[in-house]
Amino acid sequence: MKKVKQKTSAVRDLKEEKLFFKADVFVYFGLALVILCLFLIFFFPKSCAKDEFSTFSVYCADKVVLTFDCEKDNPLTISEDFSHLVEHENSGDEYIITVYTSIDKVGFNKIVFNRAESSAKVIESTCSASKDCVYAPKLTAAGSIYCAPHTLKIVKGSGLTPPTVG
């Protein structure tokens, strides 16, 4: 008989106890806030992350060929050493830049910079049969695109993310 009384009193104590205490509300609220932040970061990364890198640098054999700053009125700055190897044209927010790899202008990479999107993309190249740099995704975040045969590298931001090799 004692066991039945103990069991019923334990059930009664459980029923009388509150579901949660006032201090628990803060823990649940904090947890919900963390889940909401993670949701926003993973599903809306552009709205949560500030893209503070608006400058692209183009290198050939570790020498700066040109820089392109999407926020400047005159975004294109070409290095004097490579001025005879670079051709450019622009239409609105898009700049199409051709970087030749030799004086005879046989080998080249054609790059499109879009100021509105703050992006770069290699659209044409004579580098190799696979042309991985052409099929590389548009560079919109910090990172780089690398064309190994032409030793041409397009860098946005620190460029520490793994490059796309072509």
Our count of helices gives 4
Q: What is the percent of helical residues? A: 25-40%
Q: How many strands, which pairing sense, and closed or not: the largest β-sheet?
A: 6 strands, mixed
Determine the structural class based on helices, strands and strand pairing: alpha+beta
Features:
166 residues, alpha+beta, 6-stranded mixed β-sheet, 4-stranded antiparallel β-sheet, 27% helix, elongated
Description of the molecule:
The chain contains four helices and ten strands. The protein has helices spanning 2-16, 22-43, 45-48, 132-135; strands at 55-60, 63-69, 76-78, 86-91, 94-100, 108-114, 119-125, 143-147, 152-156, 164-165. The strands form two sheets. The chain has a six-stranded mixed sheet with strand order 3-2-1-9-8-10, with no helix packed on it. Strands 4-5-6-7 form a four-stranded antiparallel sheet. The model has no long low-confidence stretch (mean pLDDT 81).
